[in-house]
Amino acid sequence: MVSGDLSSTPARSLPDGLVQRRLGDPCAPDLLSAARLVVRADPTVTQSPEEFATYVRNLSPPPMLLAAVDHTGAVRATSGYRVTETDATVMLVNTDPAWRRRGVGLAMTSSALRACAMAGATRACLEVTDAGASIYRSLNFRTAARASQFSRTPHPL
Could you tell me which residue, 107 or 131, shows the higher pLDDT? Predict the structure, then answer.
């Protein structure tokens, strides 16, 4: 899906009991904690949390990562984004199954998009599952095309 006007992205708040942190900031969870949530929340991710964290670390350019954490510091949702000139990509939007249907995914996506706009992006694209399509439509996205993503695996020696 695509959005051609990030300046109109509405702000959405996390529900009570969650606060947002940017990975890498003080008091923020580490990448492995976020990867554990992604592996638990997304059945299409078949890697271990350690392998998934390595995959994210090796993305180029590396994404900025956000996490919603509860009072114990447990990661309950994630989102990530990258900005290249005026184009943004939102990725890694996942919500702990126990926290779904409360606006967490919407708030995390909105935060990522607003950060992209502050970084100079004017438009964004993102990958969408059927479960997340309504979230993105409510944030002014429209369907552009169906796409496939491919990645290379290391060649065995």
Answer: 107
**Helix (H) or strand (E) segment spanning residue 80:** strand 75-84
Phi, psi of 80 (to 5 degrees): -140, 160
Q: Report the Cα–Cα distance between both ends of the chain, in Å, rounded.
A: 39
Q: What is the Cα–Cα distance from 92 to 64, expressed in whole angstroms? A: 10
In the chain, the domains with their CATH numbers are 2-138 (3.40.630.30)
d(CA 150, CA 67): 26
Q: Which two tokens stand for residue 90?
A: 């939102």
- pLDDT band at 95; cut points 50, 70, 90: very high
Q: Token pair for residue 64?
A: 């900025």
pLDDT for 106 equals: 93
For 70, residues 6+ apart whose C-beta sits below 8 A from its C-beta are: 17, 18, 76
Strand order of the β-sheet with 87-95 is 2-3, 123-126, 87-95, 75-84, 64-69, 19-22
Cα separation, 47 vs 71, in Å, equals 28
